[in-house]
Specification:
With about 375 residues, the protein is mainly α. The protein has one domain. It is built from 17 helices and 5 strands. The strands form 2 sheets. It has a 3-stranded mixed sheet with strand order 1-4-5. A hairpin with a 4-residue loop joins β4 and β5. α3 runs antiparallel to α4. The longest helix is centred in the middle third of the chain and has 34 residues. The protein is globular and about 70 Å long. Keywords: Membrane, Transmembrane, Transmembrane helix.
């Protein structure tokens, strides 16, 4: 079986041959995403007077295109969709407004995930899991609550909070913090102008001034877009379809992200002995998706390639995997039918250095107790 050593030996060659951003391909992807979104919203506005079943069908397509929009936004954050940084930033901002997520701020946190993939001592994101020791220390009620909070049925709610609530809440907190900071400085220095009083401001969560400005710009553009769409489509129809499509797309995205890192026996370690390339091979899955779903998810199923090097564009991932298929033969494969089981892997076994399910952990304890 190919090892981490063989990946390290070939990594430079792989990256050199496949890190080839192509502006033409990128623009085609942008057009085949944003134009269908516009057509779908036009169709939704027309469909309400024809049949709500037709509206529902269009919303299903809208969910898929919103999912694709988020993945392309994610790629702009890595600077891999286009050749130039300026184009990646500009298009990333647009997709950030479409999906409701401040792209620059999100990408900073996402880079941390890439830098610590497989290191569950450092990862503290929205999908962080606890160790088996921490789970054992919980009361039965707390254990049930922990498991319920990670139920697949809560995925749309998680998508709603992640994409619609949290970015707005963070922005409002930042605005209030800026106002308090400016007011405090003006009390100390009455002659200070409002613009000067904002100097030295930092977000309560530790975000930089650049991140705050981007977050504010994203939220203002997002609000303008939603007001315009509510006027064009109709407030009630737009709100229902927009909230539903974004929440469902967010929920699907969260589930995809989860099973790409949390699955039975996935590589999971702390700081000691952690290896970036081993995490890409053993702690990241290869999702075996139908072609049409690979298109809507912009080839993010080739996640092992993406974690080997985030600089490889999505339209080069499949070719990279095919060329070096023998090298990635040991990467865990997950089919759609395997997703429910993978979603139950919500514990980190520190001793075994792997992800496990509650059922497997309890079985292991029962055997040890005999």
């Amino acid at each position: 079986m190919p090892t981490t050593a063989s990946l390290k030996a070939n990594k430079r060659e792989i990256i050199a041959s496949h890190v080839r951003p192509d502006n033409r391909k990128a623009f085609v992807q942008i057009c085949t995403t944003l134009l269908p979104l516009a057509v779908l919203w036009w169709g939704i506005a027309q469909s309400a007077s024809v049949s709500y079943w037709l509206t529902a069908g269009l919303v299903i397509l809208l969910i898929l295109f919103m999912l694709r929009s988020f993945v392309l936004m994610h790629e702009c954050g890595h600077g891999s969709l286009f050749r130039g940084a300026r184009l990646n930033r500009a298009v990333g901002f647009v997709f950030g407004v479409v999906t409701g997520m401040p792209q620059f701020v999100w990408s900073q946190h996402h880079q941390y995930h890439h830098a610590n993939n497989g290191n569950w001592e450092r990862y503290t994101g929205p999908l962080a899991i606890i160790s088996t020791d921490e789970f054992a220390a919980m009361s039965p009620t707390q254990q049930r609550q922990y498991c319920r909070a990670r139920s697949v049925w809560l995925a749309p709610l998680a998508g709603f909070i992640y994409l619609l609530v949290n970015p707005r809440r963070s922005c409002l907190r930042g605005i209030l913090a800026l106002f308090r900071h400016a007011r405090s400085r003006r009390i100390e220095q009455p002659d200070l102008s409002w613009s000067a009083s904002g100097e030295g401001f930092s977000m309560p969560c530790g975000a930089s001034a650049q991140e705050f400005r981007h977050m504010l710009a994203n939220n203002l553009a997002w609000l303008a877009l939603w007001l315009a769409m509510a006027w064009l489509v109709g407030p009630a129809l737009f709100l229902v379809c927009a909230v539903l499509s974004i929440s469902m797309a967010g929920g699907i995205g969260i589930m995809l992200f989860t099973v790409q890192h949390n699955f039975e026996h996935a590589y999971a370690t702390g700081d000691e002995g952690w290896d970036y390339d081993q995490a890409a091979l053993e702690g990241t899955s290869f999702l075996l998706l139908p072609g049409w779903l690979n298109w809507f998810t912009a080839n993010i199923a080739y996640h092992h390639i993406h974690h080997m090097s985030a600089r490889i564009p999505n339209y080069c991932l499949a070719a990279c995997h095919g060329e070096y298929e023998a090298l990635f033969a040991g990467v865990p494969r997950i089919r759609l039918s395997d997703v429910p089981a993978a979603l139950r892997c919500i514990l980190w076994d520190k001793q075994q250095r792997r992800i496990t399910s509650v059922a497997a952990y309890q079985q292991q304890r029962a055997v040890a107790a005999c």
